[in-house]
Amino acid sequence: MQIKSDFLVIGSGIAGLSFALKAAKCGTVSLVTKREIRESATYYAQGGIAAVLGPDDSFEDHINDTLVAGAGLCDPKIVALTVKDGPARILELITLGARFSTKREGEEQRLDLGMEGCHSNRRIVHAGDFTGIEVENALVKAVLENPNIAVFENRIAVDLITHSKFVDDSGEEAVWGAYVLDKDTGKIGSFLARSTLLATGGAGKVYIYTTNPDVATGDGVAMAWRAGAPVVNMEFMQFHPTCLYHSKAKNFLISEALRGEGGILRLKNGEAFMARHHKMADLAPRDIVARAIDYELKQSGDDCVFLDMTSNSPGFIKERFPNIHENCLKFGIDMTKDLIPVVPAAHYTCGGIKTDSDGRTGLRGLYAIGECASTGLHGANRLASNSLLEGLVFADRAANAACALLDKEVEIPAIPEWQTGGAVNSDEAVIISQNWDEVRRFMWNYVGIVRSDKRLERARRRMKNLKEEINEYYWDFTMTSDLVELRNVATIAELIIKSASKRKESRGLHYNLDYPETDDEHFKKDTVLGGDE
Ligand code: FAD
Ligand code: SIN
Q1: 381 lines ligand 2 (CB under 6 A)
Q2: In this predicted model, what pLDDT tens digit does every residue of 496-523 receive, in sequence order?
Q3: Any catalytic annotation for residue 451?
Q4: Residue 364 domain-assigned (yes or no)
Q5: Is the pTM here over 0.90, yes or no?
Q6: Residue 256 falls within a domain, yes or no?
Q7: Which of 42, 151, 209 to mutate to test the pocket of ligand 1 (most atoms within 8 A of CB)?
Q8: For ligand 2, is residue 255 a contact (CB within 6 Å)?
């Protein structure tokens, strides 16, 4: 099976959908996504989208907050262009039909702007605590109604297609689409395109405890890496401080917006401990709060800490956080009067495929945006609610750049079909689940919130053995989506270990017990793997 279009979009979160809508103005789009179209991290976003829209806010303040959170590694040009583009992109979403929470101020109905950690002002545009659902629904509706976009669900991209023909016939290797597994038929087809966009999201599933949905297996970064694109800053995995701690809860986030509305973190004995760790106490940058909780748990031997929202009225809690309130009730926790048990969990992949300010990667014809990309916005630690913003801003920029380059006269080269070789059906699926579990567990224990040289070396050795096993399995057995994802998770784990081992200092989300200080003289720079590293 072969499908041709001007653009191939891989992923249907905020980044992929927003790009598809814009690219469809100049060409045909095929959009592949590995589950149902809405299934994405975007859908589960709670807090909101950061943008300067309040009367007392300023671009300078949002820029400064982003730079402070990023611990010296943000690219100031990228930060400025993203922040300044924010209000226009929010307006576009509203025009598309997204309904954000508002409040009455005098005669006017204005956006109700929320507060989150490390922000100096109220600037979080939100739809209650269902922001992701509102945004995803608005974008999906527009995409499904667009005659220039063909959507393919339950299709998992396996590998990028590279070929030495490019638009100007320079002979340089370029990307011309991807091999894609149809999960319903088990067949692999080729989706060919003049430009390919990776919008595959993050890689939280590399860790055993994560807020991320199951689709977050780092596929885009792994595919781009195998095709030869440089990857940056993979050591900066963000751990969200507050994931619900309950034996029956899977991945349920307790939004930072709760601390923005006065939530206090407490130990089992009731002590509010964050003021001992940072002057901003509960609203300190996320890396600091997560590390403080990790420290307190190791000191006390407790399983979790607690978030106290009881200083707010029950009416306010139910109106502002209906999703979190309902979900907690399902687990027997009434947050209007009970403390919420929480632990940190892997949340956001700050590093990714290296791109320029228009989402171009190191490979011709290949763009990357959203969480799978590293644009320079987040540096060593992402500011809360800057991710959805980045997805919107870079979708717009990348679509403009790709449309400007589109030349419909250029022939897409002849591409060989996927070769299955001598692969046979596996009768040992248990190996896949065993390897998955093993990678995710040692990544949590050895390459988690607090690292050391010894732990990183252990992880490297474990990974080397596992990789050989997984590669053998990969080539011998018929392709399944579990196998594709396991191979990608292993690649991501290896990239994180390699990057973390190179950074012999502590900065932002990377903390190494053997080098507890920040070393600006030697390490105030990105960790680049591949390309001209
Ligand atoms: P995603 O939304 O994750 O979408 C990725 C898409 O790619 C999915 O459709 C997936 O199925 C598809 N895909 C992946 N691999 C393949 C493949 N091989 N083949 C085909 N399809 C593939 N950020 C904020 O700014 N504000 C928030 O309030 C906020 N809250 C969050 C709450 C939670 C619980 C989580 C997990 C994250 C939150 N974040 C928040 C982070 C933010 O949601 C994500 O960073 C952002 O949504 C990423 O968007 P994306 O389009 O890049 O990727
Ligand atoms: C949250 O609501 O705490 C998540 C916000 C984010 O990840 O930006």
Answers
A1: no
A2: 999 999 999 999 999 999 999 999 999 9
A3: no
A4: no
A5: yes
A6: yes
A7: 42
A8: yes
